Each structure stands twice: as structure tokens, then as C-alpha cells.
Amino acid sequence: LKHVDLQPGMQVIDIGCGPGRVAIPAAQAIGKTGHVVAMDLQEDMLAKVSKKAQTLNIVNISFLQAGIGEQTLE
Fold it and tell me: How far apart are CA 36 and CA 26, in angstroms?
């Protein structure tokens, strides 16, 4: 993520988030005014990201179980 210019308040989607190796640091980088959608097909991967977020007290992440083209964000 050091090559991505993430700024506070940005909206980010991590498609295929896995265990959260990008979603967690992205959420930290964009701060509480930003928002990350962690998206994955596997429910267990989303559970891992959610647990990490809770442990780190990160509240600016939502979780979406879907694949590309299977769901729209509103």
C-alpha cells in the first residue's frame, strides 16, 4: 500500500480481501472518515478480517460476501 496514495476520507473496496492483508492497513490509512468494503466469496475469510478489525478497534470496514458482478453496492 505504500505505493498507493491513500488519503483520509477515501472510499476503498478490497475485492478478494482474503484475511485482510490490504483491507486492514487501508482502513487504518484512510481513517475514521473513510470507509473500506472488504469483499470475498468465502465467509471464513470475511470472518477473519472482521475479527482482526475488532481486535484493532477498526470500525470503518464493512463486509460483503460476493464475487465480482454478483452484487451491487448501494
Answer: 7
Cα(35)–Cα(27) distance, integer angstroms = 7
pLDDT at 71: 58
Phi and psi at residue 42, to the nearest 5°: -95, 120
Instruction: Kindly report, residue by residue over 16-55, the tens digit of the pLDDT.
Output: 999 999 999 999 999 999 999 999 999 999 999 999 999 9
- Residue in this structure with the C-alpha cell 480481501, named with its chain if needed: 17
Which helix (H) or strand (E) segment holds residue 35: the answer is strand 35-40
